[in-house]
Specification:
The structure is a single chain. By secondary structure, the chain is α/β, with parallel strands linked by helices. It has 17 helices and seven strands. Strands 1, 2, 3, 4, 5, 6 and 7 form a seven-stranded mixed β-sheet that branches. A hairpin with a 4-residue loop joins strand 2 (170-179) and strand 3. The chain is elongated and about 90 Å long.
């Protein structure tokens, strides 16, 4: 049998039929050619990669449904009823199953995420600000979360509170700052390890090399897990306090990436988190009391001396926080007044500055804590 030669027009027609949803086996029969030949024709046509992937998924998900899914993947998952702002394979699999009753695997879910990113022509910064604005329109209360290490303290100074038994001699003292629309809340987490957990996690192989036997290995791994568990407990307790304080309980916590968020969501079903990349997050502010252009509260509270402080006792923590709040209130008041009035030189003891300081200071709330007293 002689080999059939296809003209360029026939090849183009075959590819167009494929792009319009025809099965490759059907086209192989119609044009008397092989699947491999059709693949070569497609490759030579320089077809859009996203369009090709749509066709490959067409046996599982109709093209129209795929386009709808990809469009929805450029919206915030929180708006679709999920607890976190980042689409991942597990969330997409659940979303497609619940919405369209279609089962897909993780590889297909990942390819849908990749396609939505390629087709998204809006910058990351614009997307974040648009999402936050849309969530606010939907009635969500935005609360920014920051964790700032402000020093260290000996565990013996803390054990008198009988909160728990500590396995480390020295503990990190972390100031937790939560900025809602109306108020800024402050609290303390004392931790045996870093308060924010970010991948990569513990390298078990490297750890094993330093350990002589399995019993010692189990003890160290158990200690690391317990330390992380205590931090997650403390974070949940603080978020619960804020939830009780805020009138609008429909809260989205905005923060940088933290591995602990997944654990918090598993424990606290009512919490929602919008995760923002570090650089952009540092520019976010609560306009009502930080102003639109001046520095944020975090700028004034997170200074280079934080890692040098070693607290002699718990009361020293309160004194340091009191000083940081005073610095923040004064500087933000002056920043805002300079921008609003257009003047450069300001008497910080003037009555208008004092009045604005008092107004701003009232927005700072100290959550019920074992570590903050008499402020």
């Amino acid at each position: 049998m002689s080999k059939i030669r296809h003209t360029d027009d026939e090849k183009r027609e075959c590819v167009n039929e494929y792009l319009n949803g025809k099965n490759k086996y059907y086209l192989a029969g119609k044009y008397s050619t092989s699947i491999r030949s059709i693949d070569r024709w497609i490759a030579k046509m320089d077809i859009n990669e996203v369009e090709l992937r749509k066709r490959k998924r067409a046996d599982c998900i109709d093209i129209d449904i795929q386009e709808e899914i990809i469009e929805n993947l450029n919206t915030n998952p929180i708006i679709k009823g999920f607890k976190i702002s980042q689409w991942n394979e597990a969330i997409i699999i659940k979303y497609i199953k619940d919405t369209y009753n279609i089962d897909i695997n993780r590889r297909m879910a990942k390819s849908l995420i990749e396609d939505s990113i390629k087709l998204n022509d809006i910058s990351y910064e614009d997307k974040v600000y648009n999402d936050i604005e849309e969530l606010a329109v939907l009635g969500y209360n935005m609360v920014l979360i920051d964790y700032i290490k402000i020093g260290r303290i000996y565990s013996r100074e803390v054990e008198c509170l009988e909160l728990r038994e500590y396995t480390e001699e020295k503990l990190d003292v972390n100031l937790v700052v939560l900025r809602s629309t109306e108020n800024m809340y402050l609290d303390i987490i004392v931790s045996e390890t870093k308060v924010i957990s970010k991948s990569p996690k513990v390298d078990i192989r490297e750890l094993s090399k330093k350990i002589n036997n399995n019993d010692e290995h189990e003890i160290i791994i158990g200690k690391i897990k317990q330390q992380r568990k205590e931090i997650v407990n403390d974070k949940c307790n603080i978020l619960d306090k804020v939830l009780k304080e805020e009138l609008n309980k429909k809260i989205v916590f905005i923060t940088k990436y933290d591995d602990d968020i997944k654990k918090i969501i598993r424990r606290k079903n009512q919490f929602k988190f919008y995760i923002v990349e570090d650089t952009l997050y540092n520019d976010l502010r609560q306009i009502d009391y930080e102003g639109e252009y001046g520095e944020t509260a975090i700028y004034y509270m997170n200074d280079e001396n934080n890692n040098r402080y070693f607290f002699g006792n718990i009361r020293d923590i309160s004194d340091l926080i009191k000083g940081k709040v005073e610095k923040y209130v004064l500087n933000v008041t002056i920043d805002n007044y300079k921008l609003e009035s257009g003047v450069k030189n300001i008497d910080k003891n003037s009555s208008i500055i004092q009045k604005n300081k008092d107004k701003l200071r009232k927005k700072v709330k100290y959550l019920k804590s074992y570590f903050i007293h008499n402020i």
